[in-house]
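Quick one, T. Sequence first:
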Amino acid sequence: MLKNLKSLFVTTEEEKSTTNSKATKSPENKPSDIPQSENTVSSRPVDNNILDRLLQAIENNNQSGFDYLEYRRSLKSLAALPMDETVKFQSAYATASTMGVTLEKLLASIEFYKKVLHNEEDTFKKASKEQYVAGVENKIKEKEKINSVIKEKSLKIQKLTEEIRVHQTEMEQMGKQIETGDTKIRETTANFDQALQVLISQMEQDALKLKQYIK
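Structure tokens:
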């Protein structure tokens, strides 16, 4: 089920190639005269594990009945057809309308799933902060304490030379741990933000287009 949900938001290279090929061959395919919303998502690859985590949250909170996800599925089924975007959105909406779905309900559904994602963001940030404190800030404090010890014992260098050497080794190890921990947390945070923005951007684009296309 998660794989099917993922396909609603992530387009494979094969799907892109098929869609572009049909769009090029079809004489009926015309550019939409509706302004397109700007996609501000980074071009960096999406972390699939994080994306799956966010999609799982959506799946766990899937609303009953025909909502945004079902509308997105209808829209996805029209992706390869030779029609402009306006017609696709309107066609998918026509299907939704037969089930009593209104534009207001669709937009409210988008806001609901955005809230689910933002709740995941809050959870992620809290966990990330805890990891940063444990893996970086505390290590920095430990390093500072050790550095103070080194300065103090340097005054007794003849007696404490060996002890200072031990502490210096500890500092080097902690420096590596700090660098590794900081790099990993920053990368994970960047990957999370990227995956989050992919989904939020798509939802915001759909919301904008729903407002533009559905009157």
